[in-house]
Write a structure and sequence with these properties.
Layout lengths: L3 E4 L2 E4 L4 E7 L8 E7 L6 E6 L6 E3 L7 E6 L4 E6 L8 E8 L12 E2 L3 E6 L1
Parallel strand pairs: 2-11
Antiparallel strand pairs: 1-3, 3-8, 4-5, 4-9, 5-6, 7-8, 9-10, 9-11
Amino acid sequence: QVQLVESGGGLVQAGGSLRLSCAASGRTFSSYAMGWFRQAPGEEREFVAAISWSGARIYGAVSVKGRFTISRDNAKNTVYLQMNSLKPEDTAVYYCAASASFTGRDQRWYDYWGQGTQVTVSS
């Protein structure tokens, strides 16, 4: 069982930056691939970025390429999403998720989800 708690969301102006954190409970965090997803009002939840258990493989959505960076610190049981050059269309609830068997964008393969943190980007 893995429990995930996101933090770091908030209100920021367009062009600004935020760093989201996702703290995981449990001693097996380092064996899970991690992902970030987001859901804007009235929209389906979508993939943002994913990182393998070791950090060797990283995937990102085209919409955030060059602006968002996913990373992890297994010693701290934490995964991060550094978000730069934020745009109003990045406004959403951001969720982190853990997968025991998959690294990538398919949400069906993620076993555990956090409650989400709100990111609002004003124009």
